[in-house]
Predict the 3D structure of the following.
Amino acid sequence: MATYSVSKSKHATLAIDTTDTVTITGTASNLRVVNHGGESAAPIYFTYGDDPTAATVAGNNTVVVLPGTETVVKYDGSNAKVSLICSAAMPYSVEAKD
């Protein structure tokens, strides 16, 4: 498990079946999560909020980001936490967007 605290964005690679937690300390209107994997890659699952439950692979109440796509979710505030997981090693980005 890796834990990061950044003001605006984090770019990293998930380890297999291991949760990463990214805290965006700056204020955001939206959070953007990008799965940089190619078309044969695995989806990334995430949860978000002030204190989200840990994401699980294909878990209930998670948001999915398919390979090579991005998902933007509404988040008004600061100190947003994003919990991410994937069944494969997958490069990703988490960004605060206005």
In short: The mean pLDDT is 96. The two ends are 28 Å apart (CA to CA). The beta strands are 2-6, 9-14, 20-24, 28-35, 44-49, 63-65, 70-77, 80-86, 90-97. The longest strand covers residues 28-35.
